Amino acid sequence: MNKKLNILMLNGPNLNLLGTREKNTYGTTTLKELIILLNKKALSLKINIYHYQSNAEHEIIEKIHESKKKIDYIIINPAAFTHTSIAIRDAFLAVNIPFIEIHISNIYARENFRSNSWLSDISQGVITGFGLDGYFWALETAVKRLLNPLNKN
Ligand code: DQA
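That is the input. Now the predicted structure with DQA docked in place:
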């Protein structure tokens, strides 16, 4: 039997408040509810999924470091660290694990400072503005890519 793929879902600061935080922008689903739905999806895709949320930059960096040799792919909503963290960028460059950057809101349709991402150019791609759907699309795409790295569609 083939080894199961290991995918890590990382959520950055304030995403623990999903469901109560700025509902017009981020919706009413909680992080706990989102994780249950993603776990179901992972089950149907026959992969292992791991979840981690932190409000602390160093904890996210440590999680990325720990992922080396254990995790095949990372899906990250870096939240506000997207726009500030060269340290998270350097962590990804250090471990060389492929990743997708996702945002619930459309970061290009908001304040100007949200249009800058320190991660986009080193990610495999960015999904922004499609609400929680982005998490599920990213998961499907990650699996597709891992199973067939030449499949870039
Ligand atoms: C976010 C967008 C960021 O600009 C913001 O700081 C967040 C969430 C999103 O999912 O839309 O916290 O990453």
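The chain has a mean pLDDT of 96.
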